[in-house]
Specification:
Elements (H helix, E strand, L loop, with lengths): L2 H9 L4 H22 L2 H18 L8 H21 L27 H17 L2 H11 L5 H8 L3 H21 L6
């Protein structure tokens, strides 16, 4: 079933839309949630909650891209669950790898506006399009799916040092681009 047909089911408030979404995108949703939470049971709960959120949100807005919309919901809910689970007992070794990007992506008050947020998103998307394919995939696995370096290395059949170097170079390049665009000042 196509995304258009699934969205049509959501708009008609047909409960089979959730089953169709689960069949089509369930594996990727679990991958995203497990990458962040590192616990299958928590990930399953997050994914189920995400389907419910998708059901509720499609009543008020029609997403342009069903998978992108769903994956964002899953990711946000997994991060929220991660924060709840680890509140008060932070462990640096298990921290979500987004902290690695803190040196690249600034957190100034100017970037909190919707317009600048979209602009920043476009810059990052453009940056990713210009990266070599394997470097782009490694970056997305690490910072979107929350995968460990060794899991990424195993997935792509390369050494951990290759993955780390790719991530380092990508962060440096992203920082350079964002500095040029005025998002980062040293």
């Amino acid at each position: 079933m196509s995304d258009y047909e699934i969205l049509k089911l959501f708009l008609q408030r047909d409960e089979s839309a959730i089953e169709q979404t689960r069949a089509r995108y369930g594996d990727k949703c679990m991958q995203i949630a497990c990458g962040i939470l590192k616990n299958r049971q928590d990930a399953e709960e997050v994914v189920s909650d995400s389907y419910l959120s998708l059901w509720e949100l499609t009543e008020y807005q029609v997403p342009k891209s069903l998978p992108a919309f769903l994956y964002r919901i899953v990711r946000n809910q997994a991060l929220t669950r991660y924060d709840a689970i680890n509140a008060g007992k932070r462990r640096a070794a298990e921290a979500i790898p987004l902290s690695e990007l803190e040196d690249c992506i600034p957190s100034g008050t100017d970037t909190h506006t919707q317009y600048e947020g979209r602009e920043l998103s476009q810059i990052i998307n453009s940056f990713l399009r210009d990266r070599p394919e394997q470097d782009r995939r490694i970056f997305i696995c690490r910072y979107f799916s929350g995968m460990d370096v060794k899991d990424i290395a195993k997935k792509y059949g390369v050494g951990s040092s290759r993955v780390k170097m790719s991530l380092l170079r990508s962060r440096k390049k992203l920082k350079e681009i964002l500095s040029k665009e005025g998002y980062y000042n040293e």
